[in-house]
Amino acid sequence: AQSVTQPDIHITVSEGASLELRCNYSYGATPYLFWYVQSPGQGLQLLLKYFSGDTLVQGIKGFEAEFKRSQSSFNLRKPSVHWSDAAEYFCAVGSTTGTASKLTFGTGTRLQVTL
Amino acid sequence: ETGVTQTPRHLVMGMTNKKSLKCEQHLGHNAMYWYKQSAKKPLELMFVYSLEERVENNSVPSRFSPECPNSSHLFLHLHTLQPEDSALYLCASSQDRRSDTGELFFGEGSRLTVL
Prior knowledge:
Chain A has 115 residues and is mainly β.
């Protein structure tokens, strides 16, 4: 069965500092990997996704993530955090069977940004 | 309207009530999903409807009953709920995974409180 681990429940960074959010997955084949962001009272918005090809993927809002098969990781990074990035971030792995998407999500990392 | 719309955004109900959550997607997708989001837990996939599949999480109690009359509308019928069912219920849609990477598009959620 597929699974996702986000080891950091809560992270605090200063505005302008760099950010890395960790994600480890378990999946038997090449996974589809996603990072979503959720602001308070909102649904989830896709930041970026890895499907195949280049292991460094660029997303919206200046985020990027690197797929490392040897480490089963898909960490999210941003070189300079803005106060508006404060939110909860979810990593997800997708099944490649069937016609519907069956994403398994991690428990999320809450990001706090100090000014 | 565009995207995925959920109504109501907030719902308070007693344990003996019957209510329904509604989801509508305007993206032309052909798969729809219900997820449950509880505090400190991963998002839990409850139900999936797609052209060729209906997937149910066997751990979802029968007091939750989905209905998908067409590819644009999804309902979650609720009856005799328990206080532990209080959560944010998220609807999502996607294109058929065979022609897409399976990205989910989420609504803003329906916050359910069971008294």
